[in-house]
Amino acid sequence: MTQTMPAQEQHVQPGRESKMHPAPVYDDPHYKSAGKLQDKVALITGGDSGIGRATTIAFAKEGARIAIVYLEEDHDARETQQCAQAYGSEVLLIKGDIGDVAFAKKCVNDTFEHFGKLDILVNNAGEQHTAAEPEDISHEQLLRTFQTNFFSIVTITLEALKVMREGASIINTSSITAFKGNPDLIDYSATKGAITSFTRSLSTKIVDRQIRVNSVAPGPIWTPLIPASFSADKVAKFGKDTPMGRPGQPFELAPAYVYLASPDSSYVTGQTIHVNGGTVLNG
């Protein structure tokens, strides 16, 4: 069934979930938890909204304690924290810019200091900026996009590896754009390609530590990044070109992150799960 969203725009990256209409659906009322992450500690970047919020809620349902990293969206972060706490989770909020190396390292250290361990790392935060022509991509934009989307992942992951132990799981948010590109998001797509290669390479390097590294590649998902990135006209058509004819909701991705975080995926590393509304990709 084809479904479109109302035309709307936001002018601040990475966007505010509280200002979206309709609001993204992040809590699946039909989700059946089974304690798959009981007593686990997770660090989720961009956990205040969108895919990160849905993953936070699903992890909370499965028994995890969670540290959420967010840029500046206090309202969204508190709302996510309160929802996760309602499911019995303990949630630590960490505010700051993961593009800053010192802060990126601090996220890991604060999580470890507060909870005493780190079992799951979800590198999810990101930003994107459209460019009508390739020549419109400024050097500043290129550096900023890579700093947020890729360099921060490397920094946080390497810091996390200092405290992670056997059985830990690292999950990176890639994108459909890493596999098929996007003419208006060239630098963003490049960062997601880098994430995919990083996932595959790191997984082979640390497989003997019994730490798994995988990624999820979302297609068009209704998150704050969408109205914060595109014109109102494009937002109104967002996701319509998928085989399912609609954008996905954040809750529809969360089970993929639960699977990769839990022992259910004990024989899975270096892989990418595609959650994109039916687009077939070989990769």
TrEMBL record:
Signal peptide: none annotated. This is Short-chain dehydrogenase/reductase SDR. Pfam families: adh_short_C2. GO terms for molecular function: oxidoreductase activity, acting on CH-OH group of donors. Residues 1-11 have a biased composition (Polar residues). Keywords: Oxidoreductase. Belongs to the short-chain dehydrogenases/reductases (SDR) family. Residues 1-26 are annotated as: Disordered. The keyword Oxidoreductase applies.
